[in-house]
From TrEMBL, chain A:
<dbReference type="InterPro" id="IPR029000">
    <property type="entry name" value="Cyclophilin-like_dom_sf"/>
</dbReference>
<dbReference type="GO" id="GO:0017168">
    <property type="term" value="F:5-oxoprolinase (ATP-hydrolyzing) activity"/>
</dbReference>
<dbReference type="Pfam" id="PF02682">
    <property type="entry name" value="CT_C_D"/>
</dbReference>
<dbReference type="InterPro" id="IPR003833">
    <property type="entry name" value="CT_C_D"/>
</dbReference>
<feature type="domain" description="Carboxyltransferase">
    <location>
        <begin position="5"/>
        <end position="206"/>
    </location>
</feature>
<keyword id="KW-0547">Nucleotide-binding</keyword>
<protein>
    <submittedName>
        <fullName>5-oxoprolinase subunit PxpB</fullName>
        <ecNumber>3.5.2.9</ecNumber>
    </submittedName>
</protein>
<dbReference type="InterPro" id="IPR010016">
    <property type="entry name" value="PxpB"/>
</dbReference>
<keyword id="KW-0378">Hydrolase</keyword>
From TrEMBL, chain B:
<keyword id="KW-0378">Hydrolase</keyword>
<dbReference type="Pfam" id="PF02626">
    <property type="entry name" value="CT_A_B"/>
</dbReference>
<dbReference type="InterPro" id="IPR052708">
    <property type="entry name" value="PxpC"/>
</dbReference>
<dbReference type="InterPro" id="IPR029000">
    <property type="entry name" value="Cyclophilin-like_dom_sf"/>
</dbReference>
<keyword id="KW-0547">Nucleotide-binding</keyword>
<feature type="domain" description="Carboxyltransferase">
    <location>
        <begin position="23"/>
        <end position="282"/>
    </location>
</feature>
<protein>
    <submittedName>
        <fullName>Biotin-dependent carboxyltransferase family protein</fullName>
    </submittedName>
</protein>
<keyword id="KW-0067">ATP-binding</keyword>
<dbReference type="InterPro" id="IPR003778">
    <property type="entry name" value="CT_A_B"/>
</dbReference>
């Protein structure tokens, strides 16, 4: 099916295309297909394409002289994109240590939602999450599919220093901080895996549309993997490619 | 090569920025005041891509270890060469061991040093622009050595027709278009935005400028969506946040206005306590 898209001139050099405002895998798939169609056209004037849950921002090298021309071109491309094709994506198992040493907000949220740490870990590591997009920080994955028992409003005051690798919950989403940074999400664990490697390819092994499972590990395993990651001897293998 | 004797308040290497990595969550970065940075390169006959030093509020003290030519453009910060006052907006030939220093900023927040051929720090993802987690350092440090290409040839005489447009330093007007969520604002909120003088708060940096005035607001957040440098967000508490060059790629606050490229340059020259006013472009 095709969605009724809206096109908006965002600034001199970019156009925003919006889908219905929902977190939904069909919309994600449609966005990724459209994005692929645009990329394959390799239109020289387009220098970047950023997408989030229900929109794409297309950034051009130069000022767009005629918005209507571009609008018709993009609309034509959308109608030509194979929205019914489900893109081939990868499932990743991310090791996470939920020890209180790393899950610095675990105690607080257990009290808040009246669950034991054991339950929170069990509920958080059960689903297969969908990566909707990377944003906020280089390599930060926005994951959908969180169990509603773990929905938590963001902190009213962001924490100034969230450690790299922290696994956290913000509203109905969960994600991983790829570097030390300020952050307003609740931290429940930590992964030793590098999510963003500017000097290596791929920059981010996780891609929009991929699936993620969190696998609980002990603190001992954490440090073992951490040492291997630091000496570049750890390669996270995908579990499966699914059609 | 340049030796950093004093790093200044916040000095970084910048160029046109990192394009094409937004899908990985990588910010664009690049010179905050792109106009002044490009003008500095132009004075030296460099290409626009040449990397410059961006100085913020308090300038560094630098020792140039080999002959070169530089140009200083942007906020006037009382630059001195070996203790003697020099001017902005002209090429300056330097000898080995010349020392460049700065006083406090007189007007404006950022100033650029371009160097013949450009500063030669490593390219990461197609850009030399510093950004935490991408380049080795987020800003330059004392004792650091910054490479540049050395030249021994005299430059061609400067192009007399080049004139620096000071309005980037002096204007308080920011030209904006409507953001995608402008229509969510009530009539009185819209009136407030066009009629108020806004004050730049102390929370201003390469990532974002927060404004002090609060607007009555009970609007909800939006589903996380793409943002760009120059996007003005309205937080639930009624604060305006203007995203700048190091902005994140996505955000969840309503995007009510969008600054033009020129106005991003102008806001980059503002600092805590400065006034700004939004002006709608046709």
């Amino acid at each position: 099916m095709y969605y009724d898209l809206s096109f908006y001139r965002y600034n001199e050099r970019s156009i925003l295309i919006s889908w219905p405002e929902k977190i939904n895998e069909n919309i994600l798939n449609d966005i990724l297909n459209f994005k692929k169609t645009i990329s394959e056209k390799s239109i020289k004037q387009i220098v970047d394409i950023i997408h989030a849950y229900s929109s794409i921002l297309i950034i051009y090298k130069h000022t767009i002289d005629n918005f209507n021309d571009e609008y018709f071109k993009l609309k034509e491309l959308y109608m030509a994109s194979q929205s019914s094709v489900v893109l081939k994506k990868t499932t990743w198992e991310i090791p996470v240590c939920y020890d209180l040493e790393f899950g610095v907000d675990l105690k607080f949220i257990c009290n808040l939602i009246n669950l034991s740490p054991y339950d929170v870990i069990r509920i958080h590591s059960a689903p297969v999450y969908t990566v909707y997009f990377l944003g906020f920080l280089p390599g930060f994955p926005y994951l959908g599919g969180l169990d509603s028992r773990l929905f938590l409003e963001r902190k009213s005051e962001p924490k100034l220093n969230v450690a790299k690798g922290s696994v956290a919950i913000g509203a109905n989403q969960t994600g991983i901080y790829p570097q030390d940074s300020p952050g307003g999400w609740h931290i429940i664990g930590k992964t030793p895996i590098d999510l963003f490697t500017p000097k290596r390819k791929p920059l981010t092994f996780i891609d929009a549309g991929d699936k993620i499972r969190f696998v609980p590990i002990s603190i001992k395993e954490f440090y073992k993997i951490d040492a291997l990651v630091k000496s570049s001897d750890y390669i996270l293998k995908p579990i499966q490619s699914h059609d | 090569m340049t030796e950093v004797i004093k790093p200044g308040f916040y000095t970084t290497i910048q160029d046109l920025g990192r394009l094409g990595y937004g899908a990985h969550g990588v910010p664009v970065s690049g010179s905050m005041d792109m106009y002044s940075a490009k003008f500095a390169n132009l004075l030296l006959g460099n290409t626009e891509e040449a990397a410059v030093l961006e100085i913020t509020i308090i300038g560094p003290t630098l020792k140039f270890l080999s002959p070169t030519t530089i140009a200083i453009v942007g906020a006037p910060m009382r630059p001195k060469l070996n203790g003697i006052a020099i001017n902005n907006n002209q090429p300056l030939a330097l000898k080995s061991n010349d020392i460049l220093s700065f006083g406090p900023s007189v007007n404006g927040a950022r100033c650029y040093i371009a160097i013949k051929g450009g500063f030669n720090t490593p390219l990461v993802l197609g850009s030399r622009s510093f950004y935490e987690g991408i380049t080795e350092f987020p800003k330059i440090n004392k004792g650091e050595i910054i490479p540049y290409l050395s030249i021994d040839k005299e430059l061609a005489k400067k192009n007399a027709s080049l004139k620096y447009d000071e309005t980037v330093l002096t204007t308080k007007f920011l030209n904006v278009s409507f953001g995608p969520e402008y229509h969510l604002l009530s009539r009185s909120q819209q009136d407030e935005i066009w009629s108020s003088q806004f004050v730049v708060s102390k929370f201003n940096n390469r990532m974002a400028y927060q404004l002090e005035n609060l607007i009555d607001n009970d609007a909800k957040n939006i589903i996380t969506a793409p943002v760009l440098p120059g996007t003005v967000q309205l937080t639930p508490s009624g604060q305006l946040i203007v995203l700048m060059r190091d902005a994140q790629t996505t955000g969840g606050y309503p995007r009510i206005l969008q600054l033009t490229d020129k106005s991003i340059n102008a806001l980059s020259q503002k600092t805590v306590g400065n006034y700004i006013k939004f002006r709608r472009i046709a």
